[in-house]
Amino acid sequence: MAMSSLKNALIIILSAITIACSTDLCKAIESPGYTVVHSESDFEIRRYRESVWMTAPVNEISFEKATRDGFHRLFQFIQGANLNFSRIYMTKPVLTSIVPGAGPLHSSAYFVKLYLPVKFQTDPPLPLPELNLQPDPWTSHCIAVRKFSGFARDGNIVKEAQKLALSLSRSPWANSTASTSEYAYSIARYNSPFRIIGRVNEVWVDVTGSRASGCESNLVAAY
């Protein structure tokens, strides 16, 4: 597909999302459930519950290009490009997980993910084969999260991940980055690209428990 055609297709897709979010449906957009285990001024530790996501693997140097490509395929899936012909409500966030490697962004591949609504958690629709998507079941596990505003770009995601790593190094979760995780970190985006102010993004890093909490049930808040 020519670059101009791809841009036009993405504009149509993102416009559809914006229109949907101008209705009451936007208020009911589902997100994966979690409990806050530990909270500080610049990060928090969350225990995410078991869940299933749909994942688009992408081989690409650019985080921005990878996210656009993966989301384009995921959007086709939720619009009915699956063997069940199911229409699936948009959820949030759009999550891009970055596989460590040797590139300009210290990455060699990406996995763009969309949380499946509760209705489809136990029996996810099968995507059309040409979309190259796959279900990604999560066990309950702990994630360190740092919020940041603005747009998530190639030029700032590494810096935000480094800030989270520095915060963790000064906390009870120092040296607790999960060694079993295949991802260096993930970027969660919660807003339409058409939203200019009040944007919310997050850096996610899998962590193991600490002696301070064990990432267990001394809980602060549940969502």
TrEMBL record:
<comment type="similarity">
    <text>Belongs to the HEBP family.</text>
</comment>
<protein>
    <recommendedName>
        <fullName>Heme-binding protein 2</fullName>
    </recommendedName>
</protein>
<dbReference type="Pfam" id="PF04832">
    <property type="entry name" value="SOUL"/>
</dbReference>
<dbReference type="InterPro" id="IPR006917">
    <property type="entry name" value="SOUL_heme-bd"/>
</dbReference>
<feature type="signal peptide">
    <location>
        <begin position="1"/>
        <end position="28"/>
    </location>
</feature>
<dbReference type="InterPro" id="IPR011256">
    <property type="entry name" value="Reg_factor_effector_dom_sf"/>
</dbReference>
<keyword id="KW-0732">Signal</keyword>
